[in-house]
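Feature request, filed as a ticket because there's no other form

It would be nice if the structure record came with a short human-readable summary line next to the tokens. Right now we just get the raw output. Example of a typical job, pasted below so the devs can see what we mean:
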Amino acid sequence: MTLHLIGIGLNDEKDISVKGLNIVKKADFVFLENYTSRLQVSVEKLEEFYEKKIILADRETVERKTDLILEKSLNKETAFLVVGDVFSATTHTDLFLRAKKKKISINIVNNASILTAVGITGLELYKFGKTTSIPYPEKNYKPETAYDVIKNNKELGLHTLILLDIKPNKNMTVNESIRILLDIEKKRKENIFTEKTMVLGCARLGGDYKIKCGTISKLEKEDFGKPMHCLIIPGKLHFIEEEALDIWK
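Raw output as currently delivered:
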């Protein structure tokens, strides 16, 4: 049988493609990966629209108990749903490779991704450098990777897309990400992320989006509303990009 890896878009139950929906309706099992991102609707809403029972797949299921999914794919039509596009997260590539090793038939259905949805800001997609993320700091875990990525991208004149952490009961906001980066700047003092740094705060791209552009001092208290949020640090700007950003100021 077949393992169908299906991107379901960024917003709601209707973002799935016609091709993807037809596959889901015929599938014997439908899994939804629910830890790298989330839609703006409930699982119940998806089940109603898809007319299928959805099995939630958390990090442990996808990364450590992959065989639960693969075993079903050996004998049944199995759909694995991913918010955004199928290969936006490396963990989905791992699932793909494991299925290949087991000689399982695989079908890919792509969809919109945050990596392309950021184009609405007016920043050229070709000029984005390495994408990074900000996790919630913990007692003995306060990574500074995002700060380093911003620094490296800036040196190359490239834009930086920063994805924000997701926990079972909370989603990081633009405001929280700004405070984390300011704390790192306070420690490092490299003038990479200061009150004068120009940024874009984005929320719910692909849906009822909100985008604001301005200095940290102007955006750090802005209310961006419901998740999902992301932060963008522009690099060297073309005059067309500058004109586009004026829309969001």
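Something like this underneath would help us a lot:
The radius of gyration is 19 Å.
The chain has a mean pLDDT of 95.
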